[in-house]
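Fold sample X.
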Amino acid sequence: MSPVSYKKKRYRQNVAAVILSPKYPNECEFFVGQCRGIKNRWQFPQGGIDGAETPREALLRELAEEIGCNNIEILGEFPDWITYDFPKVKKTTKRYPFDGQTQKYFLVRLKDDTQIDLMAFDAPEFEEYEFVAYEELFKKVTYFKRKAYRKVIDYFIKEGFI
């Protein structure tokens, strides 16, 4: 009988932004974007940490790339990294050779008069975006991110950031 071999999973370090609209704190609405070319895949802006970047530096770069601006106020940071596996689908070049991602979440508020431009970067991440209430958020976002999103947002609520 041959021994069972176990492959150690590899996770891509990543940042994610829970973005509140400029109307906050009067209204609490969350930004979600529909991923380009993927039907019904709505999520928060996110992206990999490059080289020696800090998570905060990566956050600002990713926001500039994905929503065309980083005119934000950082309200909070989730204290832990959240790790998840990609769904079992055909691997894309973007995900390869990773099994999933480990993410650092930030709660940010768009500053007043901020303009979102999804076409600001050569390879747009999102086709469209909406600001949705908490009650709508978990119906809208892709299924495999709901658990992490709920954990992060509930933490920000419990800690008084939202």
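Fold sample Y, listed below.
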Amino acid sequence: MKVLPRFRAGWVISLSVVVAVPHSASADVLHLGFKSVTNSIAGDVAIGQAQLSVEVTDEGLGAGQVKFIFRNVGPAASSICDVYFDDDGALQGIAGLVNGPGVSFTPGSASPPDLPGGNNASPPFQVTTGFLADSNAPVQPNGVNPGEELAILFNLSSGGTFADVKAALISLDLRIGIHVQGFQSGGSESFVNDPPVNPVPEPTSLSLLGLGLAGLGFGRWRRCRGQ
């Protein structure tokens, strides 16, 4: 009589893992932090590196688009006011943007037109024509302040895939620059993204993991029957 409950428990746990895995791997996502290319005030640099990030997501099979979501997690005063892209061919152009609550950006131009301090990056940051956006006046209040976000949607180059974008970010053929104002000091700093670290596993890998766990549950059931 004790065999049946152990049999059921093993299978319920294993099957729940297999069912849940495809749902959790529905999209490919990269999370990127930023490092400074200027160092006017060390405290402002530390705030930017701690609070600012960009999430890069695949818009799905056949969409031919990729989304860059800029976030400021706070709490220290700071505002992403300008966004720049240095691209060597992975992206075709800005398809649109989504301003989160409290954010107001316009794509296609920025003031200044080049990332301040971009020459300090290695290699120097060169803004791709038209691949930029900035906050509308009043600049700092309409930027990405603590608790806010901005999404910029790009069309991929002809025949391009999200894997190409990921490879370009790793090789630094695609880089993202931001100009940040609104620090309590009154200063401003510029940042360039770090290469991707620990990208989300591909769906195939996650599915194999789920099947492996299911196999362990089946093996446990067989051993129980043999007792």
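Sample Y note: Strands lie at 29-36, 52-58, 65-72, 79-87, 91-99, 105-107, 132-135, 148-156, 174-181, 189-193.
Also: Confidence is low (pLDDT under 50) at residues 2-26, 199-218.
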